[in-house]
Amino acid sequence: MSPADAAGPADVVVALDVGGTGMKCALVRPDGSTVHTERHATDAGRGPDAVVETILDVAEGLAGKARADGLDPLALGIAVPGVVDEAAGVAVWSANVGFRDVPLRDLAAARLGLPTALGHDVRVGGLAEARLGAGRGTGHVLFVAIGTGIAAAHVVDGVAATGAHGAAGEIGHILVRPGGPRCGCGRDGCLEAVASASAIARRYAEATGGGPTGGGLGGGGLTGTPASAADVADRAAAGEPAAARVWAEAVEALADGLATGQSLYDVEAVVVGGGLAQAGPRLFDPLRAALHERMTFHRRPRLVAAALGDEAGCLGAALLALDAR
Ligand SMILES: [Zn+2]
């Protein structure tokens, strides 16, 4: 019996997706529909203890809101970034929220008195895309989020693999360009050092003189704001050589990384989300062609844009909560 089959009319779960700057929060019905949403600041600069207190307060407030509205909160799901030990319910490590071995699941379960699940933001995002979004109806999905970094979730029959140490899916650290640009992890030539949205913006700035763009195509020049990855995509499409080169190098590197992913996982669908997916056909058309060029005996996966946008993490946290109750 699926969770939806067992649902009562007032059943909801409380879901929180905690990021470095903000928390997306919702009350979600067992069928995946959202009945209430809230956003709160994470304010990570206050330190991990204060962030944990805010998470607990917000979760408790949402459960109270549900009850006040005549709903029955069944469980709580929390998604956080970094390294997450989902089996133990521990936020092991996070650069942007500051967590170090925080037993967040047990803290939340004690505060709210509800069954609680803790998940990794990209893995639960992949879970939501695989079950409710662009991978719906597909048994084997690789979800790849491309933003500041690049991370992935391999979802099989609605379950995202966590890895032995809670660190599965670090596709951004596949070595694609030995001796290439320095990655944040300390190694040269990782995929995300070439093809993340921030790497694309940085490499374009380096290629064009390092600083603000000084009046090229698009809106960046007038304000002196450095070109974003989206600006680079626009300028590449308009034929600007430096942008075209940086964009093409990113696409080729992504194709190398995704081809490695397909060799390992043999999925039916690769679902690409995160900020870079907003580039639409400027990303997907050349990336699909470059990926297919790299397929020899492999079955070609469908390459599709994520469907749930920035709600995916919150919906995935809700799915974890439904699985946990
Ligand atoms: Zn790396």
What does this structure look like?
There is one protein chain. The protein has helices at 48-68, 104-112, 121-131, 192-195, 197-207, 220-223, 229-237, 241-265, 281-294, 312-324; strands spanning 11-18, 22-28, 34-41, 72-80, 83-85, 90-93, 100-102, 116-120, 140-146, 150-156, 159-160, 269-273, 302-305. By secondary structure, the protein is α/β, with parallel strands linked by helices. The strands form three sheets. It has a five-stranded mixed beta sheet, sandwiched between helices. A five-stranded mixed beta sheet has the order 11-10-9-12-13, sandwiched between helices. It has a three-stranded antiparallel beta sheet with strand order 5-6-7. Strand 10 and strand 11 form a beta hairpin. Helix 3 (121-131) packs across helix 10 (312-324), helix 5 (197-207) packs across helix 7 and helix 5 packs antiparallel against helix 8 (241-265). The chain is globular. The protein starts with 10 loop residues before the first strand and ends with a helix. Residues 212-222 have low confidence and may be disordered. The chain binds zinc ion. Zinc ion binds at residues 173, 183, 185, 187, 190. Zinc ion (ZN) binds at residues 173, 183, 185, 187, 190.
In terms of quaternary structure, the protein is single chain
Q: Percent range for helical residues?
A: 25-40%
Largest sheet: 5 strands, mixed
Instruction: State the secondary-structure class.
Output: alpha/beta
Question: DSSP strand (E) fraction?
Answer: 15-25%
> End-to-end distance, in Å?
14 Å
Question: Could you say which overall geometry the principal axes of the C-alpha atoms support?
Answer: globular
User: Could you name the ranges where pLDDT drops below 50 across 5 or more consecutive residues?
Assistant: 212-222
Order of helices and strands: EEEHEEEEHEHEEEHHHHHEHEH
